[in-house]
Amino acid sequence: MSNIKPKHTFHIPVMGLSFTLDSPIKTAHLGISSVMSMFEHNMVEKMRKYYAEKFNFPFEPITTKMEDFRAERITSYLNLVDEIVKEKFENLKASVLEKRDELEKYFELLPSFSDLRKNFDEMIAKNTSIQDIQKWLNDNLTIGSIDVNIMTKLDGPNYKGNEQLPIEQNNAHAALRGYANSKLESSIVLSAGMNPRLFGYMEKFEDFYPDANGNIKKKIIIKVSDYRSALIQGKFFAKKGLWVSEFRVESGLNCGGHAFASDGYLLGPILEEFKNNRETLLDTIYKMFKDALGRKGREVPKLIPEVKLTAQGGVGTADEHDFLINYFDVDSVGWGTPFMLVPEVTTVDDYTLKVLSDAKEEDLYLSNASPLGIPFNNVRGSSKDVERKKLAVEGNPGSACPKRFLAFNTEYSEKAICTASTKYIKIKVEELKSENLSEAEYNKKYERITEKECLCNGLTASSLVTYNLDTKMEGEAVSVCPGPNLAYYSGTFSLKEMVDHIYGRINILNTNNRPNMFIKELKMYIEYLKDKMDEAPSPFTDKQIKYFDTFQTNLNNGIEYYKKMFAENRDYLKETYDKVVSDLENLEIELKQFAQQTA
Taking CA atoms, which of 429, 505, 518, 587 is between 20 and 30 Å from 319? Predict the structure, then answer.
């Protein structure tokens, strides 16, 4: 019998602060990896209480009066998740003796090319002894990775009264420490760019270092926008004796959550650069890594530790999924937004679920809702959007800002405040009133000021509402951040239906006219460039002209790359080839016409 380990070729990325906070409890025992946001310790504590009671584990509250409560709450929740998942996994394997629905589900979800299901069926057919089957299950079945995400930029200071606390008590530092002190053997996903101070802090924790065999208990995953970013950050960690085990490439615009747009660099050419330079990347960082471990007197792994390349952002069909794996050699593909329609996986309240399942292309847009000043994917009609507009109409816009996680603005005070707070918005509105603008211009600017949402509350509320937990601090209005890919799915789906769609066993799209993921991203970048140029006051400065020229050059280079890539891979495109090529030609013409008009 084969000793093949189960291996899914997709993972579930982090979504919001709460949508995937308990996804590992729902799916890890089935061999599916997912990522939790481990930042909002208040919600984490409420969820720990909920799940401790649900699975009959002891619960002692960790109050804000306790020392290092932020990190302690996170550590305790992660340890609880780890215990629950392991218990569910052991029950799944033991169920071969009795009702084995979950065990059957484990095998049914595997990719069609997996031999595991075939081997299991053969053993049952041959009346293999229960002891031998149990041993085989123990040797071959594995749980999905219980991964944790930290947005590195969310590292603002915390206070006790008016006294600023030490750096170690900053939000991202506390979250990192909470994960590092947990029992988990998994990965931490660092997103939103470099934070040298936070990255350096990781040196203090033993679990991030390899043993002599190259095994690392807690692996580092870096979410990157391009190859250069991967090289810079990989070298930064390597010089400290820390190894980046995965580079996770995400589309700059065709994604959910915050959108970190590139300067017109497209996903295809970015992945091509990784493909062509993967060995160079590994050799470069391994030398630095080895030297750093030697200086620290640590054992150096004899072989280069594993480094994975994964990709995510806008993938929506089995053909696209397979192409990313087979053409660009990625190890796994992230499927995020579609899973928001799968209650077995994500925790989305009923109202929001209805909004998402009904959303069309025109309902999904890139907004200015984030207090971070970073474009934020949004959907019209969310309960937070409705609440925000109601408060603005009533003349009382903004939030009380009870958590201060996104308080970074020091425009009006030495102590930072949040741009979605009532305090900040009131100041801005008073300034606006003094400008003596026309009604139309005033309303336009007023909408811009009041568009900010309290994401600290909005992105946590869904789990609390779903499980009827305390929402006194957060309220019940939910912010939601799906990618534009959501428009091509309607209704809700079971986990099996979504996984079968990913592996090409069924098709659950609501249209046969869905744009190719690479074409969709290109279109979004052209629209993004147009918006940037429309927003810029005329005449453009030399700096702006240089930026716009570089952006257009990168887009044109991307178009040329796709022409060649599509022509060489007609089999992948199948019957969609003519449409994809036609869409690409039309976008090229649109970009040229636009460039001529603005020249």
Answer: 587
